[in-house]
Amino acid sequence: MADYKPGSMDIRAQEKTFAGFVQFMKWSAIVIALVLIFLALANA
Question: What's the gap between Cα 19 and its chain centre?
Answer without folding.
Answer: 6
